[in-house]
């Protein structure tokens, strides 16, 4: 028993000295002092020791345990100090170095304008709806009363993936999809990215954004359309803003109109911004064409409605007096910080 305890102590101290980190040191402690450790096994064998020898053997076991625990504690302290020194070296900070500047992002003028438009129409009870940017020709053209021979379907104006699928040229397909569901009445706004085959210049881009609105209910008239858009213009451009509606043609509305607002720079007196006219064209609108209702499963004899569409970039350009649309997409922080 004496020789066994001596061997255990020597082996334990050797392994303690060889352990290079705290995890290995803990493994040594468990191996010798744990419930299934070597020294614990010796204690369980005390029942086989003669009665008169038990005090002596017990003392030897306690001395061996004390030696191992002392070695463990001393080594643990050294390893902790070593680990702390290494941590300090890794985390050293040179306080003489200049601080790292945190550059904060900035909201894009398009997003600022969109949030403002959405706030206005949500306040009127409209719901914001979204739809796919890769759209069927059926929804992008046919259900909006744009027949197969219409110029808008020419490849010079539209990006075709195949003969039946296009990159949407407007967000009106979202309106057709919502009308198809037959959940009436409808008051919705559908903002989103659209695509047209345009060259990039100061006022055009092959990818831009539109905001289109739709109202469908019983008894909706052109007066409701005018009142809604007049209120929208006042909220967006100021309470003194006046509106003017000019007859126009859109395949999916009848009658149709383009809406002008009084120039918010000169108040309608005429200036360089409005080219001396006092008015600025802002959007297109009209009463939903009865044939569009029929193709979407709505009875035009029972329901009427109006629709309108405005370019998000156009609102941003006008509201913030930006003279080149390309500035919106160059990601120049010097430009963005102005808004």
From TrEMBL:
CDD domains (UniProt xref): PheRS_alpha_core
Protein family per UniProt: Belongs to the class-II aminoacyl-tRNA synthetase family. Phe-tRNA synthetase alpha subunit type 1 subfamily.
PANTHER family: PHENYLALANINE--TRNA LIGASE, MITOCHONDRIAL, PHENYLALANYL-TRNA SYNTHETASE
Superkingdom, natural source: Bacteria
Span of domain Aminoacyl-transfer RNA synthetases class-II family profile: 117-330
PROSITE patterns: AA_TRNA_LIGASE_II (PS50862)
One Pfam match: Phe_tRNA-synt_N
Coiled coil: 65-92
E.C. no: 6.1.1.20
Gene3D superfamilies the UniProt entry points to: Bira Bifunctional Protein, Domain 2
One GO MF term attached to the UniProt entry: transferase activity
Key words of the record: Aminoacyl-tRNA synthetase, ATP-binding, Coiled coil, Cytoplasm, Ligase, Magnesium, Metal-binding, Nucleotide-binding, Protein biosynthesis
Enzyme class: ligase
GO biological process, any: phenylalanyl-tRNA aminoacylation
Gene Ontology CC terms: cytoplasm
The keyword Cytoplasm appears for this protein: yes
Entries under InterPro entries matching the protein: aa-tRNA-synth_II, aa-tRNA-synth_II/BPL/LPL, Phe-tRNA-synth_IIc_asu, Phe-tRNA_ligase_II_N, Phe_tRNA_ligase_alpha1_bac, Phenylalanyl-tRNA_Synthase, tRNA-bd_arm
Residue intervals passing through the bilayer: none
Binding-site list for Mg(2+): 254
Cofactor: Mg(2+)
Cofactor note: Binds 2 magnesium ions per tetramer.
Assembly information from the UniProt record: Tetramer of two alpha and two beta subunits.
Catalyses which reaction(s): tRNA(Phe) + L-phenylalanine + ATP = L-phenylalanyl-tRNA(Phe) + AMP + diphosphate + H(+)
Listed name of the protein: Phenylalanine--tRNA ligase alpha subunit
Subcellular localization: Cytoplasm
């Amino acid at each position: 028993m004496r020789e066994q305890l001596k061997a255990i102590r020597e082996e334990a101290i050797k392994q303690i000295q060889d352990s290079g980190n705290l995890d290995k040191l803990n493994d040594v402690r468990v191996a010798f002092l744990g419930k299934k450790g070597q020294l614990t096994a010796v204690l369980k064998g005390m029942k086989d020791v003669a009665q008169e020898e038990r005090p002596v053997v017990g003392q030897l076991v306690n001395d061996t345990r004390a030696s191992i625990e002392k070695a463990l504690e001393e080594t643990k302290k050294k390893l902790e100090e070593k680990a702390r020194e290494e941590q300090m070296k890794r985390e050293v900070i040179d306080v003489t170095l200049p601080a790292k500047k945190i550059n904060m992002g900035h909201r894009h003028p398009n997003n600022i304008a969109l949030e403002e438009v959405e706030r206005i129409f949500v306040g009127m009870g409209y719901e914001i709806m979204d739809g796919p940017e890769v759209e069927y020709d059926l929804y992008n053209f046919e259900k909006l009363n744009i027949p197969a021979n219409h110029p808008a379907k020419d490849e010079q104006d539209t990006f075709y993936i195949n003969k039946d699928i296009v990159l949407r040229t407007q967000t009106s397909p979202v309106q057709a999809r919502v009308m198809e569901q037959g959940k009436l009445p409808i008051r919705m706004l559908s903002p989103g990215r659209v695509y047209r085959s345009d060259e990039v210049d100061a006022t055009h881009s092959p990818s831009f954004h539109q905001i289109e609105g739709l109202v469908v209910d019983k008894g909706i008239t052109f007066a409701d359309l005018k009142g809604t858009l007049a209120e929208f213009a006042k909220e967006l451009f100021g309470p003194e803003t006046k509106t003017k509606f000019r007859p126009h043609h859109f395949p999916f509305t009848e009658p149709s109109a383009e809406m002008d607002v009084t120039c918010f720079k000169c108040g309608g007196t005429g200036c360089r911004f409005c080219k001396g006219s006092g008015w600025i064209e802002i959007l297109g609108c009209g009463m939903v064409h009865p044939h569009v209702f029929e193709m979407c499963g709505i009875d035009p004899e029972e329901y009427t409605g109006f629709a309108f569409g405005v370019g998000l970039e156009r609102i941003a350009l006008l509201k913030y007096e930006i003279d080149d649309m390309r500035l919106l997409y160059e990601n120049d922080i010097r430009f963005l910080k102005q808004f």
